[in-house]
Amino acid sequence: MTKETIQQIKQRLQHELTEEELTRYRTDSRKGVQQALRTYDRRIAKEQEAYAQFQRKCAFDDAYGTRVAGVDEAGRGPLAGPVVTAAVILDPASREALIQVDDSKALSKEARTRLAELIKEHALDYTIDFSTREQIDELNIYRATSDSMTRSIQQLNIKPDYVLTDAMPLQQVEVPTTPIIKGDAQSLAIAAASILAKTARDAYMDELDERYPVYGFAQHAGYGTAQHLTAIREYGIIDEHRRTFEPIRSMMK
């Protein structure tokens, strides 16, 4: 039997192997094979930990009922654009497709976009709500976010058994509701909502970037970066800038 080359073994290790195959490779004394095995072991350990985290998030949600709505927001801190919230009820029968769902801030933009489509495909129901710049300035950011979260829940076609929010207490919701500190790290439903809210807001800011390219909204999403502040000083304030946020408020005096 011809001995496998190191490259052939590396290719085999891209897939999950039987214990018999692994034992055979572990007895191979070639340094390249042993290095490939260490890479394989790290990958498998990472996948196992990700699955364990996924199971913990599912168990967390299941403790509150069968149809749990997760609610989260994106955009409370920027100087421009809306705050966006999402409510998601996941289908317990198809959650296995969402193992990679995590806090939106821990994912790349490409990963969020891909996962947002999976979430929409496997959710029993979801809604996305926008609170405009005008509403933020009129109400304040906390109230505008709370109201948007409430609307996102009320717009669901399926009434949830329970609502879990990411740290935001809600008063005007007809079903039991609990704010969860760092909820997107504990609840799969909240993490899914965080991704839907973030991708929807990013899409809005990308469109805004096309209308006002000098401000760089596609790069900073409206946050107060040096690039954004320089553009404001050079080109002025537009309608999407939040008048009640500093330094916008001071610049308008």
UniProtKB/TrEMBL annotation:
State the superkingdom: Bacteria
**Where found?**
Cytoplasm
Coiled-coil region(s): 3-57
Sites binding a divalent metal cation sit at D72, E73, D166
Q: Where is the RNase H type-2 domain?
A: 66-253
The record's cofactor note says: Manganese or magnesium. Binds 1 divalent metal ion per monomer in the absence of substrate. May bind a second metal ion after substrate binding.
State the UniProt keywords alphabetically.
Coiled coil, Cytoplasm, Endonuclease, Hydrolase, Manganese, Metal-binding, Nuclease
- Any single GO CC term annotated in Swiss-Prot or TrEMBL for this entry: ribonuclease H2 complex
Q: From the Swiss-Prot or TrEMBL record, what is one GO molecular function term?
A: manganese ion binding
Reported cofactor(s): Mn(2+); Mg(2+)
Which Pfam families does the record match to this protein?
A: RNase_HII (PF01351)
The record, for InterPro entries, names: RNase_HII, RNase_HII/HIII, RNase_HII/HIII_dom, RNaseH-like_sf, RNaseH_sf
Q: EC number(s) of the enzyme?
A: 3.1.26.4
Q: Name one GO biological process term.
A: mismatch repair
EC primary class: hydrolase
Q: Which reaction does it catalyse?
A: Endonucleolytic cleavage to 5'-phosphomonoester
What family is this protein classified in? Belongs to the RNase HII family.
The job of this chain, per UniProt, is described as: Endonuclease that specifically degrades the RNA of RNA-DNA hybrids.
**Name of the protein:** Ribonuclease HII
